Amino acid sequence: MRQQIFVSACLVGGLVLSACAKDDTEAVDRAFQEVNVVDESNLNDVMLTVADPNEAVTYFQRTVKSAPERIDLNRGLALSLIRAKRNTEAVTAWKKVVSLPEATDADRVELADALIRTSNWDEAKATLDKVPPTHETFKRYRLEAMVADSEQNWKRSDSFYQTAVGLTTQPARVMNNWGYSKLTRGDYAEAERLFGDAIRQDQSLFTAKNNLVLARGAQRNYTLPVIPMDQSERAQLLHTLALSAVKQGDVQTGESLLRQAISTHPQHFDAAARALAALENG
Fold it and tell me: Which residues form a coiled coil (predicted)?
């Protein structure tokens, strides 16, 4: 009888130990899974920020194959393709993202952005129309303004640009876009003002500096504005101003500005030298 009790106790003890071992194993597995998720998340972030864009594309293409329905990996692939300037592929990737059940309005805005980068204006507009008005973000309104520009719907464009500027703490680039919109309409004075505002927000934005010179040149104002610029930038802006003068028939002014550009540039300024030679040769 005592032997039976001893055997039963051993069996029960073995079962308890087995159960404990199983619980410990499951706990360890869960812990490793959690560590893997954290590590993967960190790696995804690295790939989306500091990694070479094409390396990031390769990484996300590989991971998406192993988990094709994971929206975070599909987003990573789409964002990496945009960073790598592979915009046509990015459109396909974003379309996959928005087809997934967890897709958000922000994903649809990103799809519209990719469509604009490939000049699919009608499809971009249709995509933005699916985003509810309650989704009020800087990027959404900036894209809406660009679509309105493509339709030459200037009143709508100005409204969206104004809203976008109010939704960001870094409005320089959208001010530059708005200024370019005014430039294409022939509203040169307003374009000049907006480019100046953009430069005050970001003194490194050379595109805005170049556009500012174009706006001044369109008004036959051939003097450089008082803005921050290094010697190389000064030469390039003089070159832009010279071409603007020539385009409007002020050829002698253009020649003089080209000579200034060549003498100002810290190195040989081939584009300006070729333009000057062309003018001197008639």
Answer: none
pLDDT, tens digit, 9 for 90 and up, residues 178-214:
999 999 999 999 999 999 999 999 999 999 999 999 9
In a domain, 50, yes or no: no
CA distances from 182 to 121, 186, 214, 282 (A): 19, 6, 12, 34
The whole domain housing 276 covers 229-281
Region of residue 152 (left: phi > 0; alpha: psi -120 to 50; beta: else): left
* 50 Cα distance to chain centroid: 15
Angle between helical axes of 138-150 and 154-166 (0-180°, round to 10): 160
Q: Please check whether residue 86 lies inside any domain of the structure.
A: no
Q: How many structural domains are present in the chain?
A: 1
Which amino acid type is present at position 278? Answer: A
Q: Is residue 255 part of a domain?
A: yes
